Amino acid sequence: MLKHSRQRESIKKFLMQRCDHPTAETVYWGIKEEFPNISLGTVYRNLSLLAEIGEILKISTGKGPDRFDANIQPHYHFFCNECGSVLDLNMDSIEHINVIADHDFQGKVEGSITHFFGKCPGCLEKEISQKSC
Amino acid sequence: MLKHSRQRESIKKFLMQRCDHPTAETVYWGIKEEFPNISLGTVYRNLSLLAEIGEILKISTGKGPDRFDANIQPHYHFFCNECGSVLDLNMDSIEHINVIADHDFQGKVEGSITHFFGKCPGCLEKEISQKSC
DNA sequence: TCAATAATAGTAATTGTTACTGTTTTATAA
DNA sequence: TTATAAAACAGTAACAATTACTATTATTGA
C-alpha cells in the first residue's frame, strides 16, 4: 500500500517544472533546498517508483546516468551529440514501425523505443555563426 | 598508430561466430580458452576500440551490461521481455523516421536508434503450449 | 637486433545504482 | 486523541559495469 510522502511529492513537483530531463543527481540537489537531509537513495527509490506507476518516464541514455521526464504524453527524445542535452521531440507517432518489425518476426513485437540524435538547435546555431567568420 | 594484437583478433573472431550478442564478460570467458591470462580490461578495451573503428557494434541495453555484435550490416535488435535475450531483427530500413523527426525540429536530426521488444519466438512458443493444457 | 611505442595483465578506482538498517512518518482504527 | 502497523526515511554499505593506472611484454619499422 502506497503512503503519501512529502519527499516524493517534492520530487514530482521539481520534475514537473523542468524540461531538461534531469538526472537523479540533479533532482537530488534541486530537492536539497526544501529537504536538506534528503538522501540520494530516497531520490532514486522515488524516481523508480514514480516511473513504475507511470507518473513519470525513465529515459535510459545508454551512456551516462538515466534521465527522468514528468511529461508522460507520448513524445520522443533527441540527444545532442555535441553538448549531450536531451530535448523533447514532438512528432506524429511512428508506432507503425512495430507492425513492420513484427511482419517477418517469429515472436511477438509489442513495442519499441526510438531515440534520435544529431545537433541541437543551440549547437547548430553556434556552428553556423562560426562558419560565417 | 594501431598495432596488431592476437587478443584483439581472437575477440573479433569469437564475436563473429556468435549470433547472441554476447556481453564483454561472455567474450572474456570465451577467449579464456585461447588466452588463459587475458584480462577483462583487455576485452573491454578491444571491444570499445573495435566498435570505435566500426568493425563491430556496441548495443546499449539500458538495463544490464552492453552487448556486442560483429554483424555490421544494417539491421535492428529485438529484446525479449521474458528471457532477456537479444535477437537480430531483419527488416527494411525505417530511416524515413529521421526525416519525419527532423521536419519540425529546430536542430538537425542525423540519426536514430530503435530497439524493439516483446516476446521472442521461444517464449511465445512456451506460452502457447502452456495455455493449451 | 634494436629502439620506440602500442598493447598487455593485473589491479585499483570510478560511476551509477540498489540494498540494508535502525529511526521517523504516515494512515488507520480503537 | 493515542496506539499500532506499515511504509518511507536518512545514512551508509554494497554492488555491477566499466574505466584508469602501472609495470611488463609484444609488435613494428628502421
Give the gist of this structure.
The structure is a homodimer of 133-residue chains. With 133 residues, chain A is of the alpha+beta class. Chain A has five helices and five strands; from the N terminus they run αααββββαβα.
CATH superfamily of the largest domain in chain A: Winged helix-like DNA-binding domain superfamily/Winged helix DNA-binding domain
Largest beta-sheet characterization of chain A: 3 strands, mixed
Tell me the number of strands of chain A: 5
Q: Work out the radius of gyration of chain A.
A: 18 Å
User: Unreliable runs of chain A, pLDDT <50, ≥5 residues?
Assistant: none
H/E topology pattern of chain A: HHHEEEEHEH
The assembly state of the depicted protein chains is homodimer
| CATH class term of the largest domain in chain A | Mainly Alpha
Structural class of chain A: alpha+beta
How confident overall, as mean pLDDT of chain A? 95
Fraction in helix of chain A = 25-40%
Total individual domains of chain A: 2
Count every helix of chain A, treating DSSP H or I runs of 4 or more residues as helices.
Answer: 5
CATH topology of the largest domain in chain A: Arc Repressor Mutant, subunit A
Amino- and carboxy-terminal Cα gap of chain A: 62 Å
Percent strand of chain A equals 15-25%
Shape of chain A, please?
Answer: flat
* CATH architecture annotation of the largest domain in chain A: Orthogonal Bundle
